[in-house]
Structures are given as C-alpha cells and as structure tokens.
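Z., the sequence and structure:
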Amino acid sequence: MEFSHFDSQGNAVMVDVSPKQVTSRQALACGQIRVNQDIIDKIENNSMSKGDVLSVARIAGIMGVKKTSDLIPLCHPLMINKVSIDFHIYHQSQTIEAMCLVACEGKTGVEMEALHGVSVALLTIYDMCKAVSKDMEIQDIHLVSKSGGKSGDYHWKNK
C-alpha cells in the first residue's frame, strides 16, 4: 500500500488512511530556545511581567498539539489520548529545552502534533520574554522518537 499526498493529476490530497489498522502511536519531539541569563533568572524566579512563562508555554503547546490539523493542511484530525510538555533549563548554554510527548490510538501518527507542540511552546516563551530581550533563538526542533504504525519505531540518530 503506497500513500501519497498527490492524486493522479498531481493535485494535493489528504492521504486516505481508511485501509490502515488502528494502533497505539506515540511521538516525542524536542527543541530549544537560546536566551540570556536575565531571562533565565526571571523565569526561575517567576518574576517575568507577563506571568509564569513555562506554565503558559506548556498550556500553549498542548493547545498547539490539538490544533495541528487546523494549521498543517494535509494532517488528519486526531483524537489525542495524551500530551505532556516538559522543560529543562541548561544554565551553561543559556537554553531552555522543550519536550513534547503525544500519544493516540489511530490510523496515522502523531509526529506532526509533537513537533507543532514544541514549536508553539517555544514561540510562547519568546513572546512572553521579548520585552526583556529580543536576542533569542529557537533552534534544533526535531523528532526524537516515534512508535506505532506500519513503519515501526524511529529513534533520532544525532548527526
């Protein structure tokens, strides 16, 4: 069975997943935002003027996961079973890492949802911190792992 996002005339189409089996699917994505020490201090001390940065970014990332098919044209709407978004602050490199885990029972994977969740969480951090400094860089967004489906498991092999 071959899947394509193009029909016989070359038009973009949503892949027909109706013949596929429902399986447990999970994806983990991550990315980072490079900030300065002042931003890290304000986040850790919960003294950013816009509020609790990581709590708001977590909720925004979850909302992003749920809205993926609204923004990525050929993604299927999915019934998401689980979303978790976690952050880790790395002081030496002055980066904040976001990790987004998404799970569902379905006919298509949740990789795009996990990647979108990370992206929205990182953009939210940028938005909430830009009054302190606009010198931030979102970087290294990628799929870490995925499981389920016909193609099997995938694990990031770092360059």
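The chain has a mean pLDDT of 92. The longest helix spans residues 111-129.

Let me know what you think.
H.
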